[in-house]
Amino acid sequence: MVKPKLHQIDFLKSALTDDSPISPSDSIDAWLSDRRSSVKAFVEKIPLRSLRRWQSDPKTGNLAHETGGFFSIVGIHVSTNYGAINEWSQPIINQPEVGYLGFIAKEFGGILHLLVQAKIEPGNVNIVQLSPTLQATKSNYNQIHGGNKPRYIEYFNGTIPTKILVDQLQSEQGARFLKKRNRNIVVQVSSHEEVPITDDFRWLTIGQLKKLLTKDGVVNMDSRTVLACIGYGDYNDESIRLIHRLAPRSTNGKLVIESALNNERGEVDLSFILSWISGLKSKYELEITKIPLYDVRDWIVGDDTIQRKDCKYFNVIGVSTQIANREVISWDQPMIEPAQEGLVAFLVKPVNLVLHFLVQAKLEPGNLDILELAPTVQCLTGNYRTGHSEYSVPFVNEVLNSKKQLIMFDSKQSEEGGRFFREMNRSMIVLVDDNFEIGPYDNFCWMTLNQMYHLVEFNNYLNISARSLIACIPFN
Amino acid sequence: MVKPKLHQIDFLKSALTDDSPISPSDSIDAWLSDRRSSVKAFVEKIPLRSLRRWQSDPKTGNLAHETGGFFSIVGIHVSTNYGAINEWSQPIINQPEVGYLGFIAKEFGGILHLLVQAKIEPGNVNIVQLSPTLQATKSNYNQIHGGNKPRYIEYFNGTIPTKILVDQLQSEQGARFLKKRNRNIVVQVSSHEEVPITDDFRWLTIGQLKKLLTKDGVVNMDSRTVLACIGYGDYNDESIRLIHRLAPRSTNGKLVIESALNNERGEVDLSFILSWISGLKSKYELEITKIPLYDVRDWIVGDDTIQRKDCKYFNVIGVSTQIANREVISWDQPMIEPAQEGLVAFLVKPVNLVLHFLVQAKLEPGNLDILELAPTVQCLTGNYRTGHSEYSVPFVNEVLNSKKQLIMFDSKQSEEGGRFFREMNRSMIVLVDDNFEIGPYDNFCWMTLNQMYHLVEFNNYLNISARSLIACIPFN
User: Do B220 and B280 have their domain in common?
Assistant: First the structure.
């Protein structure tokens, strides 16, 4: 007698629909090309000391905007009993504000569509990627920089009444951000409500977005994290009928749908998973202290960049941007440039015909609560080569040496283009035998997609890499 | 098709059973008196500077055990945009370790019983109160103080195989502890397994514990928080049959059971509640910095005690204890002594015959995640008298001026006797009209018991006062 969430069946219908009369799938490439050519974007690396309106504190070296808004680059000292390295210090982005990442949803012909924006971000590889309807920091919507009010904010702040379908605080990259979270939100307007849109906005179904996610660098990180917060409910009469009607054509699609709706035939139930997490959070400790950037060991805080002596992990660089259709035409900011391309991957296996995902409980220094659930493999590619790294990454060989026909998903996805400079992660889902064993690791556990959707309803369970990857999984 | 949690119906059966052939209810008073008289406990206030094995850091004033174990008293600086006072500093208990609070459960005659201990704690008003089977800090079970290994630890650490029924990390007092959590756990052994017990242990049903909770200071805080983590499931065929058979006799009991099992006829569904919490966590900020105890404003760090200049809130005092049946016979420690008795209370109203609780989202400085859900009223009695306080407490008059026949629950319950010195809170549940309005406050929301049980499955949603109070609610 649990109250059924009526909108979950609407989400499922939208995810199983990969074309739309109001935004035909075969017109999207042309629209994106048009958007890319209609704006002039000029993005240039510049020395940190040359950044307009950004100041380096002479005592600490910390880098901040002159208004105190946006974000700052500070140092942290980390100590933990997790993993091979138990103490280090590093620069990190400090942005205590909670931003909005929100989609407006509306039914067209009985199918839920999400309003996406072809948005320019300085860090994007393709300059323009598909973002949520609204993507705004508190500094944005409080207009600290004196720009325009973000479009559509009134659908999210209560000014225009809507039905809230999803509303969760979710974490950002725990290795780069200090306890940063965004409000991932989907609001529905009635199908009679006229939402004014311009050329850079389009209504797409979830199925269309999932199809675009099979391509490299088309759908941005912010879209992916909100998509991942959309659950499709547990199996019920209605979803069985729906799947029967809009049945996925491929074997993979069938395995995925079973996993998305099924928490029943799993190896472990949700209370086992929660107990496993409680045990790990009791075992592992994480102590973070903010320190001056100048006191961060093994890093060089220079006039041009901030980087590690051995050039590992990432650099903090300065970027100057001029863009035509953004709130502010021209601005400078620090950005994070990765040292290498990254790899995020789930190993998956069918258990009683339900796909199970090998989930890693991973400690990252910026985590609010010690550990979050991550993909099986989440690393920078330079860090796992034997002999070239201070640690080895479990299961990386199983991912990279997999037979081609066992790769269910393989594309390159961008990190958030407002903070990360041209950072791409190879995103993979790889099938393994159903007798594949975890081995000696206590921080890995098999679970269904449905179980992950249940966890993601609550804050700070799935990390952004896991969310990004489950958003990519096509249902067809 | 959600996998039913089989143990939830066992919990419900146990909660509806308030006597037991193996521990008759009318024998419990005599047993407790016997336990109280069989041990010699000598508890004495002494100056902080006289505490054996505790040291005050000459530079910071912070108070710590010479081993670095147990806990320490440190200072914090708090800044927030929540409430009337936006900046203050205070002493706080720093105990980053996660302890165990655990019950062993076993069926006798088909009814689940929990193994309780008549446990002596220095801070207890009645010296002996009923505690969980295991109550151990990491220092305890790692034997930092060289005492005996805690009894029954092997049922909780995997040495003896058990079925885990409950396993959650839950917060302690957010005004007194800095981000402290304990692992609240219930493990079941088979009804054939012989668990050796001594005179200070007894098997009781949940219904028996709930009956004892109507008395002052019998069941300790640690028992209450674990009891609160026990959910009773949603209405299903089996629970309907069970309630029909073991039907609560009173009107109040019926209202409570409906609220415990029902998430359907509520005013708001769980996704609304989660959205309400996301909104508040986005709005309110909490910045905590550890500072030396000597730098805490308005507090006097003395040789005898640490206390506020105006004597408000609490004092840190020294206590010397000699006890016969504990791991360590004699020890000294700092404790928290409250400035006044406290009040915790829920206002409740029936909505479509289902009891709804008026829940407060409350910011406390030690919270891991800004806000946790608290009772309608949670305060020290001295702090709400008009003209005597810097702030007013909403709904306190409705609680204290209620008609007698509308008071559903009223008893005095102890705070944790290992850290808090003779601290009692008056714990009340008070009925209001079903047209009672929240008024201008955005941080209050009506919800059913069932909805609270769903939230408490996940960490850091309900604070310890709310958990303590929902544990007290009798089902009969």
Answer: no
**B117 contacts B133 by C-beta, under 8 angstroms:** yes
Give the C-alpha distances (Å, rounded to integers) separating B395 from A224, A228, A378: 43, 40, 49
Q: Are residues A62 and A195 in the same domain?
A: no
Q: Which of A185, A264, A281 sits opposite B3 (nearest CB)?
A: A264
Domain range enclosing A390: 251-286+339-472
Q: Which residues of A touch B459 (CB under 8 A)?
A: 278, 281, 369
Contact A369 B271 (CB under 8 A): no
pLDDT at A265: 58
Interval A116-155: pLDDT, tens: 999 999 999 888 999 999 999 877 777 665 667 899 999 9
Together in a domain, B381 and B456? yes
Number of folded domains that form chain A: 3
Within 8 A of A240 by CB-CB distance, chain B residues are none
Write the residue in B5, B169, B369 that is nearest to A282 by C-beta.
B169
Select from B2, B138, B291, B461 the residue whose CB has the most chain A CBs within 10 Å, as the one to mutate to test that interface: B2
Question: How distant is the Cα of A472 from the closest Cα of chain B, in angstroms?
Answer: 24
Rounded to two decimals, the ipTM of the complex is 0.92
The minimal CB distance from A1 to the residues B234, B281, B285 is found for B234
Residue A414, beta-bridge partner list: A424
Q: What is the DSSP letter of B158?
A: S
Q: How far apart are CA A270 and CA A442, in angstroms?
A: 17
- Asked whether the beta carbons of residue A271 and residue B167 sit closer than 8 angstroms, the reply is yes
The answer to whether residues B298 and B426 belong to one domain is no
Q: Using an 8 Å CB-CB cutoff, list residues of chain B that contact chain A.
A: 1-3, 5, 96, 98, 164-165, 167-169, 183, 185, 234-236, 262-264, 269, 271-272, 274-275, 278-279, 281-282, 285, 287, 368-369, 457-460
Question: Are A272 and B164 inside 8 Å of each other by CB?
Answer: yes
CATH number at residue A449: 3.90.79.40
Same domain as A222, residue A180: yes
Distance CA B75, CA B61 (A): 9
User: Residue B325: how many CB atoms within 10 A of its CB?
Assistant: 18
Q: Which of B427, B429, B430, B422 is nearest to B412 (CA)?
A: B427
Confirm whether B1 is domain-assigned. no
In 3-state terms, what secondary structure has residue B104? strand
Looking at B215, B246, B277, which one is the last position of a domain?
Answer: B246
Q: Across the strands, what pairs with B411?
A: B427
Q: What pLDDT shows up at residue A59? A: 97
Q: Do the chains contact at B459 and A282, CB–CB below 8 Å?
A: no
Decide if A182 is inside a domain: yes
Per-residue pLDDT at A328 exceeds 60: no
From A309, A338, A367, the end of a domain falls on A338
Q: Which residues of A touch B233 (CB under 8 A)?
A: none
Pairwise CB contact (< 8 Å): A5 & B234: no
How many other CB atoms are found less than 10 A from the CB of residue B400?
15
Q: Average the pLDDT over each of A286-300, B187-201, B233-247 and give the range with the smallest value.
A: B233-247
Q: How many CA atoms lie within 13 A of B158 on its CB side?
A: 3
- Do B86 and B173 sit in the same domain of this protein? no
- Quick check: is B224 in a domain? yes
Nearest to B275 among A5, A167, A269 (CB): A167
Interface contacts A/B by beta carbons within 8 Å:
91
A1 lies in a domain? no
CB-CB under 8 Å, A278 with B169: yes
Residues B31 and B114 grouped into a single domain: yes
pTM of the full structure: 0.94
A110 shares a domain with A49: no
DSSP bridge partners of B76: B90, B290
C-alpha Rg value of chain B to the nearest Å = 22
Per-residue pLDDT band at B152 (split at 50, 70, 90): very high
Tens-place pLDDT, residues A219-263: 999 999 999 999 999 888 888 899 888 877 788 888 899 999 987
